[in-house]
Structures are given as C-alpha cells and as structure tokens.
Amino acid sequence: MRPLKDAQLGAFTFFASALPHDVCGSNGLPLTPNSIKILGRFQILKTLTHPRLCQYVDISRGKHERLIVVAEHYESSLSDFQKRGITVLQMAYEVLEGLEFMNKHGMVHRALSGHNVLLDCKGNVKLAKFGLYHMTDHGADVDFPIGYPSYLAPEVIAQGSFHPSDPSRDVAPLPSGPKTDVWSLGVLLFELCAGRRLLQNIDISERLKFILTLGCMDDIVTVLAEEHGCLDTIKELPENVLELLRKCLTFLPSKRPTPTDLLRDHVFNGVSCLYTPFQKPVSLFSSSLRCAHLELPEDISELCKDDDEDYLSERAIDEVYHLWCLAGGDLEKELTNKEIIQSKPPICTLPNFVLEDGESFGQGRDRSFLLDDTTVTLSLCQLRNRLKDVAGEAYYPLLEDEQSSLPQSNSSNELSATVTLPLIIRERDTEYQLIRIILFDRLLKAYPYKKNLVWKEARVDIPPLVRGLAWAALLGIEGDIQAKYESIDKDTPIPTDRQIEVDIPRCHQYDELLSSPQGHVKFRRVLKAWVVSHPDLVYWQGLDSLCAPFLYLNFNNEALAYACMSAFIPKYLYNFFLKDNSHVIQEYLTVFSQMIAFHDPELSNHLNEIGFIPDLYAIPWFLTMFTHVFPLHKIFHLWDTLLLGNSSFPFCIGVAILQQLRDRLLANGFNECILLFSDLPEIDIERCVRESINLFCWTPKSATYRQHAQPPKTAGDNGFGKTATYYSSDYQDMSKTDLVSIINLFVPVFNSSSIDTR
C-alpha cells in the first residue's frame, strides 16, 4: 500500500441486513450472515491502489451485524470547494481518472457526492466510499439504499429499491453501470459551477420525481439553472465546461458517455497533458523488473531527512493502522466517543416475544442507524507518543555489513531485552513490531538477493503483518507466479469437484474470512489449480486444511497461495498425495514410532503395550501438517519454525505434542487414549516449538532417513549462494532398506557419522 504521507485514517460504520434464523441454504447448512459476505467482498478493495482513490485498509465485524470500515481519509472535500473555470475541468478529470480505474476492475461508485470527493493537502481528488456498492453486493446485503437522492441517475431511480427478502419483487434489478457515476459527476460539477446545492428545498420524494421528469426536457442544464435561479451564472461558463455538463447530464444512459469516453473527449484537451498515466506498482513475485522506473533525484541530499521529519508518515497505510491497533487503538471506542455508536439501556432492547428457534420480534433497529455517513478520524497521537523514543535510524536499517558475512539480527541489537520475551508478547509490542516490520519490508524488497538474511531474521520471529510474503521467501518462490496460475484451467469440471465442494464448508469455518462466499470461491480455485497442475497426484481429504494457512495469508493473491502450497507439499509431504500412498505413509509412521522410542522409551513401550499406534492418531497430523488439529493462530507460530527446517522436523513436532500429553497417556489405557485424541487437549504451541527444536538438535540426522523423502535438489546457479537454513538439509546417505525391515525395528538405525553434526 501507499505511504500514509499527509493522509489520516478514518472509520465509518453501517449494519448488514439480518437473516432469519430458521432458513438454511441449498447445502442444508445455516445461511452465511450478510456481514460475513460483505467482509469477504471487501478484501479485494484493499488491493485497489490509485492516486485518485482513498485506500481501503480494514473492515471489522461487531455485534448484531455491525461493520466498521477503515480507510484513508482527508478532512477537506469537494463540498468545501467553490471555484470555477479550468479548475473545474481539472477536478472533473481527476474524478474521471478514479472512476475509470474502478471500472477496469469491474466496479462503480454509485455513492458519488460532494462529501465523498475528498481533497488532499495539494488539492488533488481522492474518491472515498467507492467500494460500498461493491462490498454490499449492489446493495442487496443492507437495508438502506446506496447513493444520495440528488445525485442518483434517472435509471437508478426508475428501478426503485430492492431487497432479496422483499416478496413483492422476485427479480433483482440489473446492477448499475459506469454511466450512473457520470450523471452523478454532472450534478457535482453543476453544483460547483452554480455555487449551490441541487434540489435542497424540496423533500426526497419530490426530488426523485423531478429527476425523472428531466427526460422530457431538451436541455437539462438550462432547466436546472432556471430551477435554481442561476441561469446567468451558468451561461457565463466556458463553452467546454458547458459541453461537459451537457454530456454528463444526458438523460438516456444509452447516449451518455462512460468515464473512459469522457477522458478522451476534446473538452479535456487543455487538461489531459497536465497528468501522467498511472503505473501500477510491480509486485514482489513477477517477471517485471521492480527497479525499472526507479528515479533518484539529481541532488542526493534531497533524500536526507531533517531531525523533525515525520518518519511514521513514510510508512504504508496498512502498517500504520496495524501499529495503531497494537498501541491500544479501538474502533468501537473511537466511534462511541463520537456518539456514532450509541448504546441503549438493556431494558429498552428486550424483544416483545421470542420464538423457540430464537427469532425475536419487536424492538426493531432504528433505520436511521443502519448507515452513519460520518467518517471519524482516528487519532494517531497515542501511536506517535509510543514511538517518540524510536530513533530515526530504525526506520532505515542498513542491510549491508562488510565486517561479517553473517550479521546478527538488527532487531536483536535494537531491542535485545524484548527478543527474550515470549512470542505472543513480542507480537503485541508496538516498538518491537515497528522495527521488525521495517526490517522485513526492506529484506523482502531485496529478495532474492537478501534471501539468506530473510532466513536469518526468521529465526528470531516473523512479524504477523508480513508473514505471507516471508513464508513465500522461505519456500523459495520466484518468477512470474501470476502468469503460471492464470495458465491453469480452473473452470472445466473434474471428478474431484464434488469432494472439494463437500470439504470446503468444513475447513476452518470459525474464521470469518475463510467462511465467506469469497473465501469458498478462492479455496475452490486454488485447490483445483493444484489438482489440475499435478496430474500424477490426487486430491486427498486434508488438502483443504493444508491450503487454509496460505489462502488466509494471501487472500487477495491466489497465485501466491497456490505457489506456496505447490512448494510446501513436495518439501514436507513428498508423494503423500499419490493415488496409492500407503507405502509412503507407512514408512513415515514407522520412522515416527522409532523417534518416540528414541526420545521417550517409557512412553513408547506403554503405547505399544496398549496397542495405541501412530496409525490411529498421527495420519491427520502429518497429512495436513497439523492444520487439521490446530486453529490457524497456532499454525502460524508452528509453521514459522517448520518452514525453517527440513522434512524430518514434523517428527519432532509430533514427539513434542506427545510429551506435553505424556502424564495423561501413561496413566490411561487404549480407550481413554482414543477419547483423548478425538478431542485434542489444549497444546502450548510456543513450548511445542521450543521442545521440537531441542528434539531435532538431539536427533542424529540419519535417524530420520526415509527412502521416500524428496530427492536432494541440485544447487541452483542463481548467484545468491546456498540458503542459510536454520536446520540442516535432509540426510540422504543411508542405504535403501525395504519397508518390512524398517517396521520390525523398534528404534531407529543411524549412521555414526551423522552424530553431533548439527
């Protein structure tokens, strides 16, 4: 995302429409709440970055279907702007630039008005709330209309309001197109030129009727000017401005131009030359050269910062918001302080009566509270106060160290005391996260050149904000992943489709993002892409759980989620997804049994005596790399370390889990152990990770040898050197042994040369 610069963070709130309690979907499951649907659709808005659009940052779901949206905000708007002439043309051109960019991404504004056209400190246009129509599914998921009566296009008014629960209308109206925004822009420009608001002296119903009657008029601009007593003012406008007004305020949408048409119209001949076309920033994993358009100032001293420079404003908007939350920011509290969220006494919220299924009647929600159009500015004072002692050098860490080819962690030098604290505390420490995020941001921008340093810093920890890209770097993702993903056929039906459809609604559905319809669509596409692109492998139940962490972290980048998944499986689950994978899994479980015997003979003997073998509990662990048994927030911490190790590290995680349950396992028999693992008790993940590392270091490399592990890769000649992995590579020097011989061994066989090599 763009740097914060002179912008502020703003928040506004609205309610999604509530669904009845006794209705299920076609799959027999309860209907997805509309707030979840909106949350899923919102995510794509975070990827829309353009100089004429206010950047969307986050959406938060509260009680009773309340949603709070956070976005880039400015105090000044077009409502405060009353100038004419060439500046009006510039204003129109900038608005059209934003609308055209939205249209290219399949979106329209539909809520264009004076207070939604913001102005930055340089007077440049920034369109706000442009995603409300898209995220609400063209208004279907809310009980209020999208748009403002005076600015609605005639065709929108003629369609009337619609809600899916309305029995009087069974056919939804067509979604608004780009031309509806052109009419709204025409009304805005007319107000700017006339210096007054349109149709403010009549009520809403009469206002809508008046707009519909304009279809009978030959010159709408003249009629509006006469109606508002500003005909002389309008006649004095330059001819090109009048022509633009008439084109925008064309009654029939079939004859009205689109934003793209207007941008190329001759009325902007004197304006278009003042603007350079927008170039989309190059993403990290693409075939384009990221430094192709890099321009340094002629005077290099311009890059130097003053002592009073606001370093925080140079950070990305989403990064600043993340730090604001860590510093104690609370969206609901901010809105409550401004009386946007108002609580009622509990006695006033009781329903008149409640049915057995939980549906209540009476005490309906006040329609005036369905949408509050006020945008509340989020104060950054508390965050700036927290970061006041952070030195300016921390915002620009040096990555080159001529004294040592393997430098120590920069963050460890800055905050050595914090590094020793538990991970959950470090992730909530504002100053520590700032330094870690900045460091990882710079390292990832230098990827793959700084690949070794990414590995080195990941040994300390990975900031949650950059975890998705950091994991991709640890997995060695490179090249044009988007082109590869787009080349895969994800639409043609295949036999696996049915099983995927059944598995997705059961996969980590406690998470709001993954349970949304958009999440299901993305799940389906990524899983199908993997199945189609790996014809030698098959879809096994559990693959959806394996996909979940990558999809969650890269929700707006399916290609990266697919690439990470495709790199992860051969490294840790090589040949696990063969059609006949019995020999692979049997060898894996046998080595795991030997690992238990090596590290905890007493526990191993007890489990063998009662017949509680790994086949009964460990297959879901390893087939999904623990994603089937742990929630996502634990998987993130577990995989942060797993990705630093080789394919034998999961054995150590499995043993560490058993050792946390050791006392209960030793005290129970077969039936009790089955019940225990049917609902796995709470596991301390940080302790599990710590003990896994120790177990790995204590295990001879050859003890975890598997003949079905991934063959060693030849060293890549990319000029970046060998990756400085946290743990050693897989052991490949043992002679191959048949599976029967391995099963008959209760303890691992290891080569003496592999002892004390780590």
Key features?
758 residues; Transferase(Phosphotransferase), domain 1; Helicase, Ruva Protein, domain 3; Cyclin A, domain 1; four-stranded antiparallel β-sheet; three-stranded antiparallel β-sheet
Describe this protein's structure.
The protein is mostly helical. The protein is 40% helix and 6% strand. Among the domains are: 8-166 and 173-274, Transferase(Phosphotransferase), domain 1; 481-572, putative rabgap domain of human tbc1 domain family member 14 like domains (Helicase, Ruva Protein, domain 3, Orthogonal Bundle); 582-712 and 724-754, Cyclin A, domain 1 (Orthogonal Bundle). The strands form 3 sheets. The protein has a 4-stranded antiparallel beta sheet, sandwiched between helices. The longest helix has 19 residues, at 86-104.
List the helices and strands and how they pair.
Blueprint: E1 8-15, H1 34-42, E2 56-61, E3 66-73, E4 76-77, H2 86-104, E5 117-119, E6 125-127, H3 132-135, H4 154-159, H5 178-194, H6 204-213, H7 220-227, H8 231-235, H9 239-248, H10 259-263, H11 317-326, H12 331-337, E7 353-354, E8 360-361, E9 371-378, H13 381-386, H14 410-414, H15 416-419, H16 423-426, H17 430-445, H18 451-458, H19 467-474, H20 481-486, H21 497-503, H22 517-533, H23 543-553, H24 558-572, H25 582-599, H26 601-609, H27 619-623, H28 632-642, H29 649-660, H30 662-666, H31 670-678, H32 685-698, H33 739-743
Antiparallel strand pairs: 1-3, 1-9, 2-3, 4-5, 5-6, 7-8
